[in-house]
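Q: Could you predict the 3D structure of Phenylalanine--tRNA ligase alpha subunit?
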Amino acid sequence: MKEKLEALRTEALAALSDIADAAALQELRVKYLGKKGALTEVLRGMGALSAEERPVIGQVANEVRAAIEQVLEQKQQQLQAEETNKRLREETIDVTLPGRQLPTGAVHPLNKVAQEIEDIFIGMGYSIAEGPEVETDYYNFEALNLPKDHPARDMQDTFYITEEILMRTQTSPVQVRTMQAHRGETPIRIICPGKVYRRDDDDATHSFQFNQVEGLVVGKNIRMSDLKGTLLQFAQQMFGEHTQIRLRPSFFPFTEPSAEVDVTCAQCGGSGCRMCKGTGWLEILGCGMVHPRVLEMGGYDPEEVTGFAFGMGIERIALLKYGIDDIRHFYTNDARFLTQFARM
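A: Sure. Here are the predicted structure tokens for Phenylalanine--tRNA ligase alpha subunit:
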């Protein structure tokens, strides 16, 4: 049996010297040291040995196992080192090669303009208020002095979900919710940015979904002159320090008196051009003093406080600021259009 063990060691070590990959090494490990391996088969015959021979043969068997395991371990380390060196050679990176320039992204022009508007009003001491886009008829119309039979409702083609639930047509409901949340306390100074929805055909100047920013100020002794001064400061920060504004009388159910606001044309400076159709002015928003009825619905006494409100479309401001001629450019995801704003 001793001769068998010695022969097994010689055979195994010779076989190990020719191993070239990890899979063959594992097969050889199982062949000689596994539960059904060659060494185990030899050791099964120890039962026939005398008591004096067993310790001697046992020691030889342990030496054979240790010798095979040692060479197996060395061979495994050698193969791993060779594999590592091979991968390093194959995956070598030439650090002297010029890098690949990745395309530069840009903030979407609508987001850019929205952020500018928010920054301007935050700088004036306003805070940002938000509300649900799926709104009730009460907050979207009735609380804004638009009862169910009011003809002005026809001006806003509305997406109704039920008779009382709809997609908001303006962000004005946020103003009413904010007034109610303040429970008659003043002052209130907020802007309400967000998406609004109207049943409109998409064309160069209209969309069924667009973005608005509305503002609300409520307090004591708030006057129309405060509104005009606020909007002038906004226009000059948005379009340039030489920009002027004018207010034209208008009608909105939730403000009285009401006005449309124009700014001097950014392209011609007010001298007249194709963009402003020769007038020198461009309309940007609507505004007015908060209607007493709206103040009452918000929980305020119109004899004690007054307020002003204004609302503008972000798309409209972006069209004028960047000289864009079609609102659909904002939504078609044309990279040629959007990458222009990476430089602004």
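Q: Anything worth pointing out?
A: Residues 67 and 227 are 95 Å apart (CA to CA).
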